[in-house]
Amino acid sequence: xxxxxxxxxxxxxxxxxxxxxxxxxxxxxxxxxxxxxxxxxxxxxxxxxxxxxxxxxxxxxxxxxxxxxxxxxxxxxxxxxxxxxxxxxxxxxxxxxxxxxxxxxxxxxxxxxxxxxxxxxxxxxxxxxxxxxxxxxxxxxxxxxxxxxxxxxxxxxxxxxxxxxxxxxxxxxxxxxxxxxxxxxxxxxxxxxxxxxxxxxxxxxxxxxxxxxxxxxxxxxxxxxxxxxxxxxxxxxxxxxxxxxxxxxxxxxxxxxxxxxxxxxxxxxxxxxx
Length: 274
Hints:
Helix content is 40%, strand content 16%. The radius of gyration is 19 Å and the shape is globular. By secondary structure, it is of the alpha/beta class. The chain has a seven-stranded mixed β-sheet with strand order 3-2-1-4-5-7-6, sandwiched between helices. Helix 2 crosses helix 3. Strand 2, helix 4 (88-96) and strand 3 form a beta-alpha-beta unit.
């Protein structure tokens, strides 16, 4: 991983909220999520809906941005026992006990189709969770419902248009996992891959107008190495797939694993729409 330095904003967060002070992995993740939220343009006093909050990595960055008078409603379909090394339940409980906790309403095991809100949101955030969706139609239905709940949507995901050869292994690792999900039923965090142009089209179909697009450097994150390790762990599952797919997968594995160990994560792309 690249040499990592905490910036002043992240150091201030750690000092103010007593979260992740001894956890370097979470500090790296936090700094990137804070950069995403800054790019989203989240302002103090806003009421924000977050979809797919998971362990709350982005949630805490949003809660910091909205300030004491803002509110974050964070939803995830996962139950409290899901996830590792901290489960979703353990992570969100830790956040709720921090000074940020009073700004956040977590709703775990929440089917978004059943979610109702009496007060509209200024912004809905959809950050690094679109690859959980198996079908584009399911993602489109989420966008359509968000259209009726929030004035704006801020979307972030890994950018498949990698710009550096050191990001290649992350690209092939997620591609392998997406193919795996088409042949082996699993509850992994990659069920399909969506390119940013496809996200743009889906947002437009849901009557959103794209107003901002940019890329945020995420190469310092650990995710690329995590995904590579997981992809190697599932290699034997491809023994049962058709021969032509096996040939394709063999090529992907060779390209993923041929490196000098200097593997970096893909960047994040951001799309904001109204």
